[in-house]
Amino acid sequence: MTSTTEHTEYAEHTGQAEYAEGGRDREARPQEAEKTRQAAEAPGEGTAVRAGADAAAAGGAWDDGLIARRAAAAVAATGRQAGAGLPAPYDGGTASGVGDADLAARLDALRELTGLSRPRVDAAALAEAGRVLDDAAARGRLSRRHTVVALAGATGSGKSTLFNTLAGVTISDTGVRRPTTSAALACSWTDGAAGLLDRLEIPGRLRRRPVQGPDGPGAFDGLVLIDLPDHDSAAVEHRAQVDRVLAHVDAVIWVVDPEKYGDALLHERYLRPLAGHAEVTFVVLNQVDRLPEDATDQVLDDLRRLLDEDGIALGEHGEPGATVLALSALTGEGVGELRDCLGQLTSERRAAARRIGADLDAAAERLRPVYVPTGRVGLSEEAREQFADRLAEAVGATAAGQAAERAWRRNAGRACGTPWLRLWRWYEARRAPRTTERPPGETHEEETTTARQRVEQAVRLVADEAAGGLPAPWADAVREAAGRGADGLPEALDGLAPPESVPARPPRPGWWPVAVLAQVAMTLLQVVGGIWLLGQVLGVCAPDLLPPVLLMLAGIAGGPCVEYGSRLAARGPARRYGADAERALRDAAAGCGRARVLDPVAAELLRYREVREQYARVLDPVGGGSSQGRAGGAPALGGSFARGPAGGRSGGRMAELSTTGR
């Protein structure tokens, strides 16, 4: 077995000693530094991501506000104009069902989504999205030529033996001692992977080069293979190292053996949570040389059944998904098929994009409860009218209208009534005790308290109506906006017009002077008739009782008739005047409620619609960015090909997003 020192000597002999030295010492070499600089400045290779990362470092990642959104839009436009994708410049193929340009658009949408959501959504809920954006930016700044593949497995699964078989030289120690692999070991077929290995925190002393033929790396050009410690190791630091590396590699080869392929720890801790990463996942059944010939297929079928229960889509019949193979690293049986699969994965150079797309799908699924409504969203016209009615009731709009109507009729009665009746009413009013005055203190306070309670109830009901169907963070934001507006709403309504206020001088219609003249004429008839009759009694006039009596009777009967006719004529105008007064107070109260409550609530609903459309673009940048989605409601995204974390298509979830709420 070749030791580490012997392999270092082999690397120095072949002029590849950089993989036996520290990674940071390699980068200090002028030639390597110049190559790294040229690769980083190459156009069309993750420009948008690098610019987004620089902008985030300069001004804080994904800050909320118009400036941040404009900056994100400018970064996205710059990236697209440069033909940048993530991780560009891959040509052809798909990444989680979308191209690289669409993946960059999805990342831009997620970045803007987190910025818009930060004031409303808990930071813990956005932590996963921030991690995905950080990882995508970090991966975009590194080499796009290389594909990092990790070999993971349980104790005794034979992953180190498979690692050595693929490398063509004994690099990783194998043996019966468990665990044999105590630290991640890297093997790169091509130069320039130092940055990737530094990101994985693999020291230079654990970086190796494989045995290569005269034609160079061949199909493995750009492959970086990582041998991980056992994921079920008793050492905590080994498991932590496995979790850290798996979070940053482009693809994973899970090595299982016939005895532990159904281990619950493997399926529950790793395979099931990473089911959405099926396209960058290989599941290799090793040690088939230990099985009878007819048992291999049975074990493979059972393994596929377990993977299906985990929600992992299998790449069979030309469909994208996980690759399941059976081999023996010891005898070499089936290793050639794995080499072919790795060669195809490396030559496509799309594993990084697929991994980022899968991480993006998983982050979007975790954010689903934060953005997807559970019912109809928004305020209906009926709810707005009910809110206005409750405010009108609180300010006493109906009572004010009735008071205005009574005032109009009272004014008409004063102008068109008989003088004698008006005089009698005045006398009775002077004699009657003043019992209609409001006693100071308790009554006014009780009415004020009741009106305030009505206003608070109206605000609470409209807030509940607006928040219904919204996810919890946005429902809370709607209620908070309504509550802030309700703080000064009772005082503002009191300043409009008190319910007991009555207009001092209602307008007079054109027929009032005629009625007044008629009433004056009736009064003159009574006066003339009375004087005439008095003159006859005193002997001044010739005795003739009939004419003066008729005059007096005409005046006495005509006055009430004129007054009654005026009252009949005054009903319509008085009713209209009261309705106008009620409507004016109702409109004023509704306007006050709209400015203080409905407008802030509408602003929160508009903000939610904006983030919901951004979330739809994260799921599907094509359908989510359609004009239909921008016009109103959620866009129709039922045709999305974004994969969910369970390995199934997310078109059903997209369709649900497009049909719930408006």
From TrEMBL:
<keyword id="KW-0547">Nucleotide-binding</keyword>
<dbReference type="InterPro" id="IPR006073">
    <property type="entry name" value="GTP-bd"/>
</dbReference>
<dbReference type="GO" id="GO:0005524">
    <property type="term" value="F:ATP binding"/>
</dbReference>
<feature type="region of interest" description="Disordered">
    <location>
        <begin position="1"/>
        <end position="51"/>
    </location>
</feature>
<feature type="compositionally biased region" description="Basic and acidic residues">
    <location>
        <begin position="1"/>
        <end position="12"/>
    </location>
</feature>
<dbReference type="InterPro" id="IPR005662">
    <property type="entry name" value="GTPase_Era-like"/>
</dbReference>
<feature type="compositionally biased region" description="Gly residues">
    <location>
        <begin position="623"/>
        <end position="636"/>
    </location>
</feature>
<feature type="region of interest" description="Disordered">
    <location>
        <begin position="623"/>
        <end position="662"/>
    </location>
</feature>
<feature type="domain" description="G">
    <location>
        <begin position="149"/>
        <end position="264"/>
    </location>
</feature>
<keyword id="KW-0067">ATP-binding</keyword>
<dbReference type="InterPro" id="IPR027417">
    <property type="entry name" value="P-loop_NTPase"/>
</dbReference>
<feature type="region of interest" description="Disordered">
    <location>
        <begin position="433"/>
        <end position="452"/>
    </location>
</feature>
<dbReference type="Pfam" id="PF01926">
    <property type="entry name" value="MMR_HSR1"/>
</dbReference>
<feature type="compositionally biased region" description="Basic and acidic residues">
    <location>
        <begin position="21"/>
        <end position="38"/>
    </location>
</feature>
<protein>
    <submittedName>
        <fullName>ATP-binding protein</fullName>
    </submittedName>
</protein>
